[in-house]
Amino acid sequence: MILETSTFLATILVLITSVLFLFKLANPAVFVDWSEEIVVVTGGSQGVGLAIVKRLLTKYKPKHVIILSIAPLTENFDSEKVTYFPCDVSDYIAVKKIGDRINEKIGVPTMLINNAGILGGKKFLDLEPSVIERVINVNLLGTMWTTKVFLPQMIESNHGHILNVSSLLGIGGIAGVAEYCASKFGVSGFTESMIQETKHTNVKFSGIYPGLISTDLFRGVKYRFDLFPTLSPEEVAEEILNILTNGRSAEVVIPWTANIGRAMKLVPVGVQNIIKDAAGANNSMNTYIPPDNKS
């Protein structure tokens, strides 16, 4: 019995290693010279976005960082390295106009981090239609509009990387965040499709699926059991920049133990209900404290 188990585990390990090797062959890395990269960060004036900007400037030192956000900057940055544009990413015309200004005044962006996101924070039937629409427009359409504006020149130069910030709630849904889950499921599907559409180019697409992050977006949210550690904005920012540095398309769940969320899809809905109720996931939004919803 022990021998059979060992053989099975060894076979699984060989298969996983082979798949990873084939993935590397099919998805070759692109060399990243950060000193030549122009990076756009949406929602970059607060939370994870701000942590990304700070980490870029202190460790990676790209050619230029561009912040797109409707929330005002609360930090003073070197104006020669950072440019802030007030921009509602849910408005395609506004994004297009800003994109033209960036190309003219700064240069063609080579990296785009779609981080902007908002949350309704109530049960679906308690949400105003305008709030539902706003969440979908910012989280999903905002990601698509920035991609629509900045991707063509990346394709033309055959160089670039777009990373979309999704969520564990873009893998599995819980009560109280239906509109947010819908938007992040959309981001997940969009990312997977764009990986396929650009796989024969040197433009890379990636998605990151963080668990609970200690930002104002989910302030007050509590689970009955801490199944996964709460992430700091700095931890998420560093993982995002690691993905970009690696120069490959990737889909990364953090913390890695949260991949159990993907495994949940393999069990019946009834079993998922029991697990989510036992973990207190469906009551986690009861203590939610809403932010001002600017990103």
TrEMBL record:
Q: Name one Pfam family in it.
A: adh_short
Supply the alphabetized keyword list.
Answer: Oxidoreductase
Q: Which residues cross the membrane?
A: none
InterPro entries for the chain: KR_dom, NAD(P)-bd_dom_sf, SDR_fam
Similarity comment: Belongs to the short-chain dehydrogenases/reductases (SDR) family.
What GO MF annotations does this protein's record show? oxidoreductase activity, acting on the CH-OH group of donors, NAD or NADP as acceptor
**Organism's domain of life?**
Eukaryota
Its recorded name reads Ketoreductase domain-containing protein
The residue ranges of the Ketoreductase domain are 37-216
